[in-house]
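Handout, section B. The chain below has 154 residues.
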Amino acid sequence: MKTPVTLDSLLLTKQRYGISVAASIMRLHALNIISDEEKQNLYKRRSARWGVKSEPGDDYREPEKPRLLKRTVELLASSGIIAVDGLSNFAGLSAIDVEMLVGLPEGYLTSKKAAVVHLVRLKSMLSERREEHNNDQQNGTLVEFRRPPKRSTS
């Protein structure tokens, strides 16, 4: 990195390596390449020029997808070291969350896809269950529970 450090030089670094300008400023400061004052000035110029949340070039890059973690899980599963269906319990997350975080294909851990229920079918299923429940109540015995009378707190 050439000194004096400018936003334009940091933007070129971002385009080449994919590191945000803010992270570059922090790293340069941690390595004592820039002083506290230079760091503060760069942050102020960055905020005035692009705002706080985004930087130029953020839209052009795809987020990285985990490759090593995916290969590790596939290797563990194929060698029988860990059961595929037990991985989500081991991680303490749902199977869908683990699949998304690790980059596994949908349904890899569950080996089944969720059934899609159409609303029309759902309504008919609910009405059938209500009817079954009502029929069960007619055949059963109703037991009434009575609450004891409330005591006064005085």
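Note. Helices lie at 7-17, 21-30, 36-50, 68-79, 87-91, 95-102, 119-139. Compare this with the example in section A.
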